[in-house]
Amino acid sequence: MKLFFPLVAIILLVSCKTNNSRQDDGEDSVIFNYESTPTDRSAVNPQPVKTYSETVKSFETTDQFIVSLYETKKTFNYLIRIQYKNLKEEDTLKVPNFGGAPSVDILKGDKRPSCMVGFLDKDKKFRESKLVYFEGDKLRIHVLKRYAVSIYQDTVKTGSE
């Protein structure tokens, strides 16, 4: 038992040794290849990129709940336009930069009328950002989640240090 702990400690130290057999040529190496996307659009499409529409029927009227996403001059910012009854409002959606052209989407919400505004990540999975809905006769925009993208780079040691 007295020899067990020192033996385990020696095995752990030997197994944790890193292999630094990389040859340094004096130049920095690329750790992460990141596709660059311009932050400003050269041409803004005046038509909606995505639109969600829902018909809301009541005893008195039939109304359309319409939420549309529009491009702005900034590549990763979108304008949200909301129409319902006699109300027309606007909000913004910021999409994180995944290194390529952003892709936005609108999905049906649980409440009626409502929808979730979001974007598709680099794996094409929908990420909800805002919930747009009406409660009574009041428009509500609830931020569901906030997103950010970070790029980390380790410091490369060269042989001259």
How does this structure look, described?
The chain is mainly β and 161 residues long. It is built from 1 helix and 8 strands. The strands form 2 sheets. The chain has a 4-stranded antiparallel sheet with strand order 1-2-3-4, with no helix packed on it. The longest helix is centred in the N-terminal third of the chain and has 12 residues, at 4-15. The two termini are 44 Å apart.
Helix content: under 10%
Order of helices and strands: HEEEEEEEE
Which word captures the global form?
A: elongated
- Give the number of DSSP strands: 8
How much of the polypeptide forms β-strand, as a percent range?
35-45%
Count of runs of 4 or more consecutive helical residues: 1
Q: Identify the quaternary structure here.
A: single chain
Report the average pLDDT across residues. 81
Distance between termini?
Answer: 44 Å
